[in-house]
Predict the 3D structure of the following.
Amino acid sequence: MKKSWSARMAAVVLGASFALGAHAQQEIRIGVLYPLTGPGASVGAELRSALELAADIINNGAPGIPDLPFSAGKGLPNLKGAKIKLVFADHQANPQTGATEAERLITQEKVVALVGAYNSAVTATASQIAERAGIPFLNPESSSASLTQRNFKWFFRTTPHDDLFVHNAFDFLKELEAKKGIKAGVVASLNENGLWGTETTKLQTKLAPEFKQNLVKQVMYPAKTTQLTSEVQTLKAASPNLVLQSSYTADAILSIKTYKELGFSPDMILANNAGFTDTDFIKTLGKDADYIITREVWALDLANRNPLIKQVNDLFNSRYKINFTGNSSRTFTGLMVMADAINRAGSTEPEAIRKSLAATDIPGSKLIMPWKGVKFDATGQNTLGQGILVQIMGGKYNTVWPFDMASREVTWPMPKWDQRK
């Protein structure tokens, strides 16, 4: 009788676990699954750099940053100084490729855990493979709310999800009117049509009437489109004051170029992170990126509240000549959380790592994120994360909400394209 796929995978995982257990002091292989080529390559490169920095700190320390976990260096102390070995896989922003690569990492590369995968649609398929194989999967960045609604046992997510993020946007608009006297006016949305954008659209549809916002038009476009002319013309015809937008890097850049070309100039664009917080966004668009507000989970100007933010960002910048973004800071944090769990488990056995992840309780003072900490609920969702909003001004991200955390006042409305200097 042939063994089932699940049985074969379990045998592979068990063998890998025993093999790694015998050599724990040497190497712990963690699979990391990200878009290293294709439309997400630019953000993938930043996420890879963040992972490499985290692994280097875990393995070799970070002198001068004593409040950062593993800063004393020399590997995982509860595993006799075992070093983290990152095994990279490129999913090319393709869900099927992500699933195939996840299986390869587990069966051929013998990883004891997976971290990834940025794109929500890829995280969905890759984590299914990990779930069937009984391998811990930690997701630092994907925000589709449904990912932690699948009753998975092996899936953990450190970032807040879109239910919270979209709520944040509407909370902001409500407070903007109540505290600043600024009304959003007529609202429209432009979202990519993958899992992330589709779920965001549904949430916006649900929340707009609850928050008494006049959402008149919702436009969706193919996630890998190379032109947005018809979609922007549709938006322009609706004459919105505010555009809510969810786009990855290439299409976020394309949309702003198309807005300018077609003379579409709403009072404000309120974006849902992703492409709008990729370093390439400001680098490519220059001054045309200014004034946009985007939800975030990290900002350098919050260092006045948490010194770790500047200390670790300085280290990142010295090596890679870029600052952290909301994307890369979450990826860095994800690997640190996984390493913490493996160290507390004192084992590379998957079930021990899973139990350790479930028991995670890291205070905000040990993170570079402006969160209360990391603590997972029964679904694998971190309950202590939170979102912020930033506005791009002078090529920099400035925290503007929550208002009590703001480093500058909101500038609203944006100047029209022909009125910008």
Notes: The chain has twelve helices and 14 strands. The longest strand covers residues 214-221.
